[in-house]
Amino acid sequence: MTNEITQENTTDFYCDFVLNGKIEVKKVMETANVLAYYHTRPFWPVHIVVVPKQHISSLLAPEVERPAIVMEMLSVIRQVAAQVTAEHGACCILTNLGEYQDSKHLHWHVTFGQPLR
Predict the structure, then answer these.
(1) What is the pLDDT of residues 17-42, one digit of tens each?
(2) Engineering a disulfide at 42: which of 33, 47, 88, 106 sits with its beta carbon 3.0 to 4.6 angstroms away?
């Protein structure tokens, strides 16, 4: 049995490992409240994750009603998406909800290319 850190064996990979520094990530952009970094196990050739530094469970959580954090996240997503689009000509932005959401911490994926798996 392995002790590998994965999203599958924690309910909040971002709080439990990324934001507290237990796992190293390659940062793309960081603000006071938002972190964008290259996915630790990418599904696409370019796969960047954007997360709020405070715990927000999902896009449907009451905390999302506070416009400041949402606007800061959207600003970071927009800047990262612009970088990916400038470099590759296109990008995809997505988030998951409910059973599709492996880690119960709001996060967005900024991707480019065909899935690797």
Answers:
(1) 999 999 999 999 999 999 999 999 99
(2) 47
- Whole-angstrom distance, CA of residue 35 vs CA of residue 43: 19
Q: Is the CB of residue 40 less than 8 Å from the CB of residue 25? A: yes
Q: What pTM did the predictor assign? A: 0.88
Q: Per-domain residue ranges for the chain?
A: 7-112
Taking the CA atoms of residue 10, residue 13, residue 17 and residue 19 in that order, the dihedral angle to the nearest 10 degrees is: -150
Answer for the pair 36, 27: CB distance below 8 angstroms, yes or no: yes
pLDDT at 95 over 50: yes
Q: So what's the architecture of 7-112 in CATH?
A: 2-Layer Sandwich (3.30)
